Amino acid sequence: MKRIIKSSIRILVLSLIIIFVSCAEDQGPQPLEHNSNPPAEVTNVAVQNLPGKAKLTYTLPSDDDLLYVVARYTLENGTPMEVKASYYTNSLLLEGFAGQSTTEVKIYAVNRSETESKPVVVTVAPTKAPIFDVYDSLIAQPDFGGIRITADNPTKEEIGILVMQKNIQGDWVPLRTSIYTSVDEVKQSLRGFESVDQEFAIVVRDRWLNYTDTLVTTIKPLFEQLMPKSGYVGVKLANDAKTINNAYPISNLFDGQFLEYWGSYFTDRTIDVGNHLVTFDVGKTTKLSRLRIWNFSEPINGQRMYYYLGAMKKFRIWGSNTLNDGTLDSNWTLMGEYEIKKPSGLPYGQENNDDLLAAKDGADYEIALDKPAVRYLRIECLENWIGGKFMAVSEVHVYGNPNF
């Protein structure tokens, strides 16, 4: 009998718990307090109009149960916006405006019962959004195999520079390689185009979907090709770095192997005096456009580590049409100096999928258009990812125009 009574009590308690939880779920989240009296309004509202933004400062009401202040407004493109600030501060930053027009903003004080005050209505008139200055600085010009976009973005706004071409229906469609960035100086090339006149349309957009006017331009990309690897030959100059052993010749740089040790090039890690150099002939004097380089990826615990050990972090590319004893004098032209940055920003020895995607297919290192045509190239490792000078490189592709 006692067992039956205990079981009945358990069932009753469990039923009450289920009923209580079900009721709580039906009601949804509820305020901790139940004060239906609205708080007083904010006072002394001041407006500071900024590019695409407006900053509001105000005096908070003295209500003891004040929780936050909220501002509601509608952008020029019809998007409703709501911005909140806790009672620990006395300002709100309203963003997303295209600018150069006035907008009505309603400000409410809200207590812990989510009861709102009467609205305080102000008018803001932000100046033009930063995307319009980006657009004004925009330059589109021919580049090897494509189009080069440069622009200034001094406030480092999150922007999209949409580069479009017409589809078969005649509609402008953004290219998948359009630019999405927040850097202060945009310098990027979109490649993969034939060297014929092509029409492009370019527009700048921000994250609130404000758009600038459209720049329509006709550009003929410069001709480029992958220089035939059959013409590449390793060259050994007096101050070039020693390799680990004869199993890793210079020819491994252009043998088509991208992952394995036996298809990669390693300089001697025991020598850390001076920068490590490797030299090769591309077979013909060429107006270079870029080098695509695959750093060696160490297999660690079943995954490939691309920003590890001897993979280059900082390096230079040199070019010449004649060979000397290896001295980097006027015989050699500095074609470019580069620094590889890990997209994730994770500490050394830690990499995520963003890092993998950025490195597994190699990366392009562009040669400026004003650099001379050259035949012989040198790669100089200034610093690897472990902080030394030795290099570990899997493959190099050289692009350019041999018929300049």
UniProtKB/TrEMBL annotation:
Which InterPro entries does the UniProt record give?
DUF4959, DUF5000, DUF5126, FN3_dom, Galactose-bd-like_sf
- Recite the UniProt keywords alphabetically: Signal
Q: Name one Pfam family in it.
A: DUF5000
- Source superkingdom: Bacteria
Q: What is this protein called?
A: Fibronectin type-III domain-containing protein
Keyword S-adenosyl-L-methionine applies: no
Recite the lineage of the species. Bacteria, Pseudomonadati, Bacteroidota, Flavobacteriia, Flavobacteriales
| Gene3D superfamilies in alphabetical order | Galactose-binding domain-like
Would the keyword Signal turn up in this protein's UniProt record? Answer: yes
Please list which residues make up the signal peptide: 1-24
- Read off the SUPFAM superfamilies from this record: Galactose-binding domain-like
- PROSITE patterns per the record? FN3, PROKAR_LIPOPROTEIN
Q: Name all Fibronectin type-III domain ranges.
A: 38-130
The scientific name of the source species is: Flavobacterium pokkalii
